[in-house]
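Dear colleague,

Following up on Tuesday's group meeting, I ran the structure prediction for the two-component complex that the binding team flagged. I've pasted the input sequences exactly as they went in, so you can double-check that nothing got truncated or mislabelled along the way. The structure tokens for the whole assembly follow below. Feel free to forward this to whoever is handling the docking comparison.

Inputs:
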Amino acid sequence: MKTQTAPGPTGTASADLKIVPRRHLGRWIGAAAVVLLLVWLAVSFSRAKIHWPTVQEYLTVPVLIQGIGVALLLTAVAMAIGLVLGVVTAVMRLSKNPVVSGVAWLYIWVFRGTPVYLQLLMWFNLALIFPVIGIPGLYSGRMIDILTPFVAASIGLGLNQGAYTSEVVRGGILSVDEGQTEAAQAVGMTRLQAMRRIVLPQAMRVIIPPVGNEVIGMLKTTSLASAIGVSEILSEAQHIYYVNNRIMELLIVCAVWYLGAVSILSIGQFYLERHFAKGSSSRQLPMTPMQRLTSIFGTKRKA
Amino acid sequence: MTTNVLVRAENVHKSFGLNEVLKGINLEVNSGEVVCLLGASGSGKSTFLRCINHLETLSNGRIWVGDKVVGYRQDGNRLFELSDKEAARQRRSIGMVFQRFNLFPHMTVLENIIEGPVLVNKVKPAEAKRHASELLARVGLEGREQSYPRQLSGGQQQRVAIARALAMKPELILFDEPTSALDPELVGEVLDVMKDLAKSGLTMIVVTHEIGFAKEVADRVAFMHGGEIVELGPPLEVLGNPQHERTKAFLSRVF
């Protein structure tokens, strides 16, 4: 029958033809290159005069564990300040009130326009401008007593972070359709209620990935706080290697702790993103590692 | 008759910059009446509708819903725009259904419907949920409480949006081209729900291109052109025997 034959080589029935998937030659070459590089690095490290027992020994030294604890605590406090400020100033910047949006703009301009390092030093030395702090008639204290290195670092890092987070949050808010606010207003919500209940939850999906990035960035930026006397992990490690001269060993210990902390934070981000992806797609949510594991074993059992 | 009037627009003007979109609209809608606003795109139908619940401010004129001026407080010969909070309070009794549904995508169907009653009217969640299920049944979507909007067809989404508007127990519902974003085969299911509402005595102002719906359901039809209502009357008169040049031209293009 003529209708059944398409133009082209004939002679084999379609059912007998085999489909050969594309070959990924580049992947194999790439993988080989990566393995070679890793082997080379491993050899260099083992040949170098790194005293591995020292690394192992210092990995669990209380001072360094405390140091990473301080770094994590500082990250949490500074990020909390940064997020609150970021959301508030983002909403302020989108306000129709020119004074309100102007104040937010000024804040972002100042704190994004100067180095964090400089800001930290200024907060730490704030006593030079305001020697005494207090509420008239209620409370007063000396600035140097209140503004300890940790407090100064929290405020400094938090205010700087807020200026960046503000822009991220503003981008998130702008990504939500204006119709959502109108629909919320149509059921009697005020603008602020609409922002809190309808717009921000949807903006979160856009906001979380860059904020996750910033949390991780913050964890590492806390090392700058050593400049104003905060005892975080990197400064503690330096204090140790100034004495025993095991420089690389102690830096490797720090790297291990930082990597560990970042890995945990990344896991948190995965679950947070999953939570706010609710309803955003008709497709299913990405599987958690646990679900992936059970699904693999589940299919195996079936087979 | 005046006791019966629910919506009264008086000399409503609206400009966006130099562009005057509404040039003095006068319209009275009685309680329980269904009025369809027809007209070409850009004639100001949707803008006028959005003025009725103060999603747009007015440049001139007044709109009453019930005994209150919408969005403004009159003091002597001045109109002071209400605060956001006061405007929101007024909108509680005015429902609105949008062309693009505007359901809240991060909430389930049930959450979409009870959000307003619970947050704004302080209805108890259990009570609001019961009412929501009743409303879903009324729009033919019983059992879909836990679906997300994305999982529904356009027609189903619009019916949820109608249920959401009804959940606030409004005295008036505004429909802004409720079927224009729908596939042709889904238009009917939404119009059926709206016919049902019209029969139940709800006051409705409907911006639409569905001439058939206007003919069948509307008590009166207003034809708008260039920011003015050029013809107003019972559908059979306006649609069957149009007097105005523009109405004739529009209808000949639609049919």
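The mean pLDDT of chain A is 87.

Cheers,
M.
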